[in-house]
Amino acid sequence: MLFAVFSGFVLAALTPWLIGLVKDRIGWLLALLPLGLTFYFVSHIPAVSNGEVILQSWDWMPGLDINLSFMLDGLSLMFALLISFIGTFILIYAGSYLRGHRYLGRFYVTMLCFMASMLGVVLSDNLISLFVFWELTSITSYLLIGFNHEDKDARKCALQGLLVTVGGGLALMAGLIMLGMAGGSFELSEILNSDNDLLTSSFTVGMILCILAGTFTKSAQFPFHFWLPNAMAAPTPVSAYLHSATMVKAGVYLMARLNPGLGEHPLWTALLCSAGAVTMVLGAYLAYSATGVKKVLAYSTIMALGTLTMLIGIGTDHAMIAFATFLLAHSLYKGALFMIAGILDHETGTKDLTVMGGLRSAMPITAVAATVAGLSLAGMPPLFGFVAKEALFEAVLGAPWQGAVLIVAAVASAILVIAVAGAIAVKPFWGALGNTPKKPHEAPIGMLLGPIVLAFTSLLFGVVLYAPDTLLVAAAVTSVKGAPVDFYLSLWHGVNWPLILSIGSVVAGVTLYLLWNANRRILIKVNGAVSRFGPEAGYFKMMDGFVGIANWHTRVLQNGVMGNYMIVLVMTTVILTGYTLLSQHGFYLALNLSDMNFYEGAIALLLTIAAIYVILTRSRLGAVATLGVLGFSVALIFILFSAPDLGITQVLVETLTVILLVLVLFKLPGFSHYSTRFEIWRDGTVAVFFGVLMTLLVHAAIDVRYFESISSYFVQASYPDAQGRNIVNVILVDFRALDTLGELFVLAIAALGVFSMLNLRAEVKKS
């Protein structure tokens, strides 16, 4: 599994070289990797179907209990198969869709990195490595959404998706850390199988809220749903892969993975059921009200993500069966429909459904694939989508939490989705021929292969239910539920309430589709009124607030006045450090001057007088000279306390500083204005506060010692180990050699900078 995850990164590194060899066939070549991974994961189906959980681990940072550990069970196997199987056709599709694009190599590099990151998310057993892969999916999806980086809207939508998902990712990081602390391990397999009760931990509520903040933002749950439709600014291969089959389901995956440990907590149940139901209905309504073919599919994806979240929240056996079935069905038909949307855009020149029609004669293969996938979306027999819809109705009918509300929500969304399926699968291909910008024609085989295979796989799974039931769904249900569940999938369970609800939703959905054009004006008005107060409007207000704060910060704090910078920095240090010092240590200032010599007092008095004079004088030359007095007085202190090396260094530094400042002052113009009395008192007060703080810190440091002084070690080891009697030199050259080397590099770089400036000045004079 380590190779399965990291092979994508390796192939991404080789892609720029490969694309120069095979040119336009690069998609077919790169698709061999996910195809091979598909066969690899298929080989594990028998073992996983028999209840085996495959664990593999490699040390990464063992001191921090962070490993590259992977777990393959029913849930991760289903996701890994979807990622690799659908990814195969996406890479082939992209080669035809982006044929001749100047950034095709960049696209494949990013797409392969995303594929590898997504596999890392669903296979990781370690919480920290899972989070690393999780954030990699956010970064790579940002690059893919903003692939057309010259387009302002694409950059804006990519940034919005990044901010929302990464913001949730920060909360997720806190939640995963709390989960590891509550579970006593950072390995998921150990946490979910341990005796530690996650529901009684002091971290439980905070852990659930943080984890759901991360999963809700990733999987576009209300109120974070708005970023997903805007991500359709990405090229269609990106939309088909990231936002229907993989990335947006990462949040759903993590909720399902943690459900055995957290599923019985009432907060978990309430949040997942309520947010999922609202997202389901809202996504279905927005899909019905949209006209852009990709926007319609994006909103219907939101509906599906809400459905999956709600089913995890319900948590019954029937709900888990419906979850696994719906997850598989949605990935198949939605991947096909997104690629068909790209074909329609690519071959007609428009994304607007209102101008499409009658395309079946010019695009017969696309029409057949769209019809099959659309019927699965609508939940019509004998498609696998029908089985998923029946399972959904059975789950909400037996829901223990707000069952009546969930039934109404499920039926309402089913009605709207049937109308949406008609708009996608019927409207573009039937009726009068629309007036499209380009003359429509059938797409090349590279673009048709994916929709054909995925659509007819949905048909095959609906007819031959043994394949998904026994091989995939049962194992996934066991993983999500935490225990084996006896069930079977069937197209016919007799006349029962799920069938009655399904028939009623079909009749109402067909009626809504027939009224689709007539309802356009009303829907536009309603959406326009709601959008001014919705979550997306709140997002833009928040971003405007950030800009306002940044403007204030630049105007007030970072206004180019160095004095203001120093005041803010110093007072911030005084307040924070002073509060900590006084609250943790107290105010102790006991001065004992009995051992002080008269010359030490004289130096201290000289320092004080010089400091006061610097503040009060209006002579720049006098201020510089007085600063020199301060420096030389400090050098005297070093010499008196047996540090002649430091004293000599201080004298040299002060001499050079005074000389350089005097030379500079002769070139400066006179003061345009002097400091006001208020500014003098303000600056003096700040200086006094800082001086008092430093004095208190020094006294506190003298009284507090956690370890024995290292000075005795230097005294004892200086000559035997370093062959030096000057302890200070030995410390600098031997014991702290790397530190001294770093300082030498700094001095060398500064000297090079001065030398370059002098040469530049000489060249300017010559010119």
Radius of gyration: 35 Å
- What is the approximate shape? elongated
Major sheet attributes: 2 strands, antiparallel
Structural class: mainly alpha
In DSSP terms (H or I, runs of 4 or more residues), the helix count works out at 32
Q: Could you tell me the number of beta strands?
A: 2
Strand order of the largest sheet: 1-2
Q: Report how far the terminal alpha carbons are from each other.
A: 66 Å
Oligomer: single chain
User: What fraction of residues sit in β-strands?
Assistant: under 5%
Residues in helix, %: over 70%
Question: How is this structure best described in words?
Answer:
- This protein is mainly α and 767 residues long.
- It has helices at 2-22, 26-30, 32-42, 45-49, 74-97, 104-123, 127-145, 152-183, 188-193, 204-218, 227-230, 236-242, 250-262, 266-289, 293-314, 317-348, 364-378, 384-397, 403-425, 445-463, 466-481, 497-514, 520-531, 535-557, 562-584, 598-616, 620-640, 644-667, 677-703, 711-722, 727-735, 737-766, and strands at 54-61, 66-72.
- A two-stranded antiparallel ribbon has the order 1-2.
- Helix 10 packs parallel to helix 14, helix 12 (236-242) runs antiparallel to helix 16 (317-348) and helix 15 (293-314) runs antiparallel to helix 16.
Key phrases:
74% helix, mainly alpha, 767 residues
Give a quick summary of the entry:
This protein is mostly helical and 767 residues long. The protein contains 32 helices and 2 strands. It starts with a helix and ends with a helix.
